[in-house]
């Protein structure tokens, strides 16, 4: 994936982290609020141990929450859906994130054994902000 990636789903944009490549002594990636990340960060969470190749995560959209999602190790498939347009994006570059604004149905699958998802969010956790029912999502996205 790269910045020229043609994202066709509404409410979705690529985010590129500042990167210092120091191989073989490591790579450094930097995410600063209101700079590379398009909002003030209020919550960070990450998901590891995705060794089950059939694992599926996500399957929801948010009413107000904004997030930037990274695959900082390994690879995964991110399925994006705005209620009209659908697209699958392979994430395998730690410096490339996807900014998910409200009302984007997203699903993650096809994880490599070593994949790690990192998410930066603009609000604290609120289950009430989740839309977990796809029919409800379609109603809201299309209204
Ligand atoms: P969920 O967001 O549904 O996971 P994913 O989209 O990655 O599949 O969250 C799974 C569970 O974890 C759910 O019960 C809510 C809880 N959770 C929190 O308590 N706080 C959080 O910040 C997050 C992201 C999830």
Question: TL;DR of this structure?
Answer:
The protein has 143 residues and is mainly β. It contains one helix and twelve strands, in the order E-E-E-E-E-E-E-E-E-E-E-E-H. The chain has one helix at 134-142, and strands at residues 12-16, 18-21, 27-30, 43-47, 57-62, 67-73, 76-81, 86-91, 96-100, 105-109, 116-121, 130-131.
Morphology call? globular
Percent helix = under 10%
- Widest sheet, order of strands: 1-9-6-11-4
Low-confidence stretches at least 5 residues in length (pLDDT < 50)? none
Number of strands: 12
For the report, how would you describe the main beta sheet?
5 strands, antiparallel
* Structural class designation: mainly beta
What is the count of helical runs? Answer: 1
Strand content: 35-45%
Q: Could you spell the SSE succession in H and E letters?
A: EEEEEEEEEEEEH
Name the average pLDDT: 96
Q: Using the CA coordinates, give the radius of gyration.
A: 15 Å
Distinct bound molecules? thymidine-5'-diphosphate
- Cα(first) to Cα(last) distance is 32 Å
Features:
12 strands; 1 helix; about 45% strand; about 140 residues; binds thymidine-5'-diphosphate; mainly beta
């Amino acid at each position: 994936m790269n910045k020229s990636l043609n994202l066709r789903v509404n409410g979705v944009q690529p985010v590129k982290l500042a990167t210092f490549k120091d191989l073989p002594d490591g790579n450094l990636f930097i995410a600063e609020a209101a700079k590379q990340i398009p909002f003030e960060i209020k919550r960070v969470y990450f998901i590891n141990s995705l060794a089950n190749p059939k694992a599926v995560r996500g399957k929801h959209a948010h009413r107000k929450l904004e997030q930037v999602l990274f695959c900082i190790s390994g690879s995964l498939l991110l399925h994006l859906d705005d209620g009209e347009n659908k697209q699958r994006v392979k994430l395998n570059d730690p410096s490339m994130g996807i900014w998910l604004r409200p009302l984007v149905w997203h699903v993650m699958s096809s994880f490599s054994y070593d994949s790690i998802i990192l998410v930066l969010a603009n609000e604290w956790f609120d289950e009430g902000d989740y839309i977990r029912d796809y029919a409800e999502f379609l109603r809201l996205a299309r209204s």
